[in-house]
Amino acid sequence: MAIEVRIPTILRTYTDGAKAVEGSGATLADLLNDLDARHTGIRERIVDGDNLRRFVNVYLNDEDVRFLDGIDTKLSDGDNVTILPAVAGGSV
């Protein structure tokens, strides 16, 4: 099962600069474990224990996984997963 994972700039140090990598897994949790096996350390930047970190957004085919089943969201061959850190700030 091949799933394309789009990696934000801030996490590309874990993927040797790759903008996208392939992974596999039946759920998002499985996929993140697979990614961590290939790109050590990336999982802990995305999840805290068994939950997505508060300021990291993950999308499955452009749909926020928090509105699906979170880290237990089921995946299928050919899916696209996008990891985006939340951006905040600015001046008043």
Task: Provide structural commentary.
InterPro entries: Beta-grasp_dom_sf, MoaD_arc-typ, Mopterin_synth/thiamin_S_b, Sulfur_Carrier/Prot_Modifier, ThiS/MoaD-like. This is Sulfur carrier protein CysO. It holds the Pfam family ThiS. The chain is α+β, with helices and mostly antiparallel strands and 92 residues long. It has a single domain (3-85), classed as Beta-grasp domain (Ubiquitin-like (UB roll)). It is 17% helix and 27% strand. The chain has 2 helices and 7 strands. The chain has helices spanning 28-38, 42-46; strands at residues 3-6, 20-23, 47-48, 51-52, 56-60, 63-64, 80-85. It has a 5-stranded mixed beta sheet with strand order 2-1-7-5-6, with helices on one face. It has a two-stranded antiparallel ribbon with strand order 3-4. The N and C termini lie far apart (47 Å). The mean pLDDT is 92.
Mean pLDDT: 92
Strand content: 25-35%
CATH domain class name:
Alpha Beta
What's the helical proportion of residues? 10-25%
Shape: globular
Radius of gyration: 13 Å
CATH third-tier fold name: Ubiquitin-like (UB roll)
Tally the helices: 2
- What can be said about the biggest beta sheet? 5 strands, mixed
Number of domains: 1
Structural class designation? alpha+beta
Q: Care to count the β-strands?
A: 7
Across the major sheet, the strand order is 2-1-7-5-6
Poorly predicted segments: none
Distance between the termini: 47 Å
In the CATH hierarchy, the architecture is Roll
Listing every helix as H and every strand as E from the N terminus to the C terminus, the arrangement reads: EEHHEEEEE
- Can you identify the CATH superfamily? Beta-grasp domain
